[in-house]
Structure formats: structure tokens, C-alpha cells
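Quick start: what a row looks like.
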Amino acid sequence: AAALLPPGSLLLVVLFGLALMPRRRFFGRSLIALGLVSLYLLSTQYVADGLLQTLEPPPVDLANTSGQAIVVLGAGTYFDAPEYGSTTVNANALVRLRYAAHLYRATRKPVLVSGGTPEGAPTGEATHMQTVLERDFQVPVQWREDQSHTTLENARLSHAILSAAGIRRIYLVTQAWHMPRAELAFERAGF
């Protein structure tokens, strides 16, 4: 499956072009050029950002939405961070937490952090996320779900916690590239 996605698929195009060179020189060269140029373009920040923006919806007026709680999904762990003297969240998780803090300040909705130990850490991602939100962003965390290992488990276990509090509509915080899958999982869980 990895060969069908970039960069694997583009390398396959280049290899196919090389294989065609002895018999169909022009077509082989064209495939090689197409594969290499595409590989370069997809590696640039400009093209990568442009493609990610196609996944992002237009900005929403937070005052006119009906979310009852903010759910922040874990994004990974920065193990034994020497500058902090302990394990903490990684850069992707920090981006999510920063937006969750912004969302909390705009809506004052309660926050649930969700993330277990998919990388085998002794402490779940949710624990580190809670620490960062409360200590660094001064945002209280009302619920912590720290048993999940996948996005599907994030959704199912978060729903169990929030449905007990009567919450059915949420603000889901993750990255744009992850949102379509996460949104589907959370809708199927009952949000």
C-alpha cells in the first residue's frame, strides 16, 4: 500500500520510465521527468501547504456554533525531552493544544484530552496534554481519556465519557490531514 502513495508511487513511475528507455526512449524519459518533477514539487512547503489547505474548511464563527465540549486528540510523545527534564507532547500535539486553548478562550467550553499509550510509553498522551494545557496555557481540563491507542478508540472512549455528561456535540481538534478520518470516527461513535 505504501508504494501506491507518494513518494513510493512517484518512484515507481521513475522506475517504469527507466524500464521503457530501451524500447520507447521519449515516453520513458517523459515518465522519468514527470516522476522527478512531481517528487520535487510535493516536497516543497508551498505545494504541501496548498494541498493541506484543500482539506481545511473555511473559518467558522465560534459564537454561532453549538459545540458543548472541546475534544483534543493526541498526536504523539516527545520522550525524555532534555530541555524539560521529562517526557512531554511532541510538536504536532503542541499545535493541537495551542488551538484548543484558543478555542477554549473563545467558547469557554469544557475540555477533554484523548490519547493513550500507542507508542508504549508508561504514561498516556492525555496526561502530558493535560499538563501542557493547564501549566503552559492556563486552560483547565475537565476530562482525560488515556486508554485509547487509535482514532477509533479515541472516539469510542471519549463518547463514553461525554455522553455520561449529556454532551452530544463537540469541537474536534486535530490537524487538517487527520480531520476527515477523525470526523468520521467521532460521528460513528455518536457525536
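That is the whole record. The first helix runs from residue 8 to 20. The mean pLDDT is 92.
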